[in-house]
Amino acid sequence: MSLDVIGSITGLISTAINLANYAKDVKGASQEWIDTCAQVECLEAILAEYCDSNQDPSAFRRAHSVKTQELIKPLISQTQRAFADLKKKSPKNHRGLKKYWKQASWPVFSKKEADDLQKKLSRLQQSFNLAMTQEVKTISSILLDYEEASRIRKWLEPPYYRGQAEDQDRFFSPIVASTGQRLLQSDEYQSWLNDRSSKKVFWCHGVPGAGKSAQISTILHDLQTKWLKQKTGPAIASIFFYILPDSIESLTIKVLLQTLLLQLLISLASKHTPEQGKSPIHRSVLDLDARYRQSNILPPVDELTRVFFEITQDDEFSAGVVLVVDNLHLVPVEKNPRVAEWMRDFFTSVQRSRNIKLLLCDRNTSVNMFLEDEEDVVYHELSAQKEDLRVYLNAKMSSKQFLRELEKEKDLTKEKVVEMIISRSDKSFLLPELQMREPLNAYSDKGISARLKTLPQEFQDIYRRDLLKVANLSPKKSLYAKKAISWVYFAKRRLSPYELQCAVNFGSPDCDGGARSSPIDIRRIIQWCQGIIDCPGINQGELDSEAITSTRVRFVHDTVHEILKKEPELVSAIEADIAKECIKYLESVDIPNHGDLFSSQAGNSKTRKYGLLSYSTEMWGYHASRSDSAEVDNLSLQFLQQDRRLELALEVVPKDADYDDTDVNSATALHIAAYFDYARLSDLIIRKGLVDIDMGPADILDSTIPKTPLIWAAISGSERVTECLIDYGANVNLQISGWSALHWAVTKSRTAIVKLLLDNKAIVDLPDDIQRTPLIYAASRGLPDIAKLLFNHGAAVDAYDCEYKTAVHHAADRNHLTVLKWLIEGATSRSVFGKAAGNRTPLSFAAGSGAVEVVSYLLTFNPSAEDITNALDWSVRKGHASVVSVLLEAGADCNCFFREWASVQNANDRSSYYTALQRASAQGNIPIMRLLLTYGADMHETAYGEFDCKAWAKTRNSYGVNKALLFLEDWERSFGKAQSTC
């Protein structure tokens, strides 16, 4: 680190000063002089090492921050000259140095020479100390940036994000490692990956169970390893998204984008260390955070998409980015066509991008369903290779038990068994893996030959056979196995082995799910499931007390979901039973201080202690709302009527900007029903008259009044409960802290609920406490569908808030071009282009936000010269060079005088005037300075003050402004002092 280097140099300089001072006064002090020369040699070695690192730009950049480099560089040569002067006084004698030291006459320095050298070294020492102070400030600032980056990444993290990494680790399997390596080393893949001129899409397809996900994971593992090892220079980055059967319901456009965006940020952070002086978070993400942090909402999809493509253009990704999406065939095209349509648009944009390549993997889905340009695709079939299957099966069939049984068979060898299974593999890893269970079944009363003859030919047949085995177990074992399979199938999230153990045991005659000492062990339960359920390490007995709560149970393969979905009679449809079990579990467990279980510090020990409590608290309402059971409804109501249990149920409600402490502490059973979209429970509560729907009268500005159930429903997106509450007469226009249910539905992008509220007499232009209408919020969040819905119900485009900003101003400020175009087309007058507080037009807001496309669009409406010039001021303030270029081309006056807003009211105050060039010079923004000078900005203008642009640059000491001063001086020498005017 640079601090080490600077500290060493300053310490040795101090020693040299002291020894030089000592040498000038002490005669015959040969040893002291020897010590002084030794110190000088040590200093020279450090400087030489420092200068060597300077010759290697990448190493130098890693070792020192930019500003520290600029401070140290000029000191190096000065220090070297001072040491050279010191060494000149060293006596020279070639006849024997030791003898000469004793005869030398001291002092070698005159008093004046020593004093001069001391002063020179002292000045250098002070300079190095300043450099060290600057480095400390820089590194402290960077460490704060890292804390901020961590917070932003947590903000962007979607639900179950960590499951993506878990799935990649699971899929990176030794079973298909060799096959994955063949794909990795194939000429087809390498040519696609490394040739920038090649096709943009690598489409992998294959039969179910061909090891597609595992082989793709091999590619991801290779790319990630190379990315981390390549500390300097270009390396190809990779990001991925696995679409899995148990996450299809939670698959949204935003979740996919959040996942990809977060991986990009983590890849960038892995290349940036505090010593480099680089921010660990991309500038576009910081801007996004600044714009949406206060409202505590995630940015809309178009904002996330824009930032995604901006980050991929970062210099760190100059070698390219590979985007991998697996299991496209699972996308619910019919059930959720919007996601499929967005994916097609997104993938098409990726095809047109400069820096991203797309690797897609599925079974045999039609390409044109997800890609517009089918010619830009390399097709590659993934399949199990016989060589790899042979190695894998031979290893699996090496158990002593199997080999002893094989010896009893005539004309049957292990090699023949392996080849027989391979011949039926159908290019699949899955089928042989499932088939070989039968030959390896040590409990079968049939010989190996007989077992081989009855091997199912398809994996669906194997699943049916396994489920039949489950049915034929003893009643108790069969019940436990069916419950386990049903829980894994219906669970909203993946369960840990211990949670599944509690779920299956709870309610049985001899065990209550963990509170007693005799539950059926999870290993036995999974064994009774006949291979349908899998858990890492379960068969090897590797699950310790930590693993039993940290690992996750899943089906042996994703195809199990499909067979259970198509043939529901094979699994108990126990949604209602799961809901009842969750509710009864919550009622049976007494936790004096249950809040700590749901805190971020809650560990596996608590999960072990409380078993199914965490899952039951999170998901009971989800299962209950999906069941169709009056018994479950009554159980739910009884549960929520107990204050202690209601408090427990509220633990899952996030305490944030949506639900504050007042809301949670005052919530009723009806609020919980709204949170889970539990319409039948809502109806039951209202019919029994247990809760006032509107929570009594409310003052719209009183922030201490809790939100109504209708507002909770709007926030949660609970469409069925919203309809139920409206049918029972809920006040759709009631405002809490200024916001009605419509405001919340708009800001949360709940299109269906917005329509429901508008169709039931919600006031479309109802202003909040800062006079913002729902349309203004739709515009500021970039929601074109909701904006059109509001407009079609009579929303006024020219309505303005307390700062006189219309929806057009907000859309321009947030760079929402699609919404902006639609609003302007729907406006009845040009008042939407009027000036808001601060004399700002939509054009100036767009310029200040760096929205080049929006600025270009607004310029087509022929704004006045004054408006264009004012917009120039805002683009210079915010440092948006691309916008400055567009405005100058449109005729902005580059020599206009601007004033700070604080002095606008005093027309006679000339102390705060400045030109665009003066501001750019003070900021050290060379690209903008060059643009302004090219268009005729006067570099000698003082704008009623004392400083021209060069003087402004001189008053600043930062690295950037020093560069700006050099640029101005070079410009003046090149073009002379005469400046043209605009």
UniProtKB/TrEMBL annotation:
One of its GO terms (cellular component) is cytoplasm. Residues 179-361 form the Nephrocystin 3-like N-terminal domain. This is Nephrocystin 3-like N-terminal domain-containing protein. SUPFAM superfamilies: Ankyrin repeat (SSF48403). Keywords: ANK repeat, Repeat. Coiled coil: none annotated. InterPro entries: Ankyrin-KH/SAM_domain, Ankyrin_rpt, Ankyrin_rpt-contain_sf, NPHP3-like_N, P-loop_NTPase. ANK repeats lie at residues 705-737, 737-769, 770-802, 912-944.
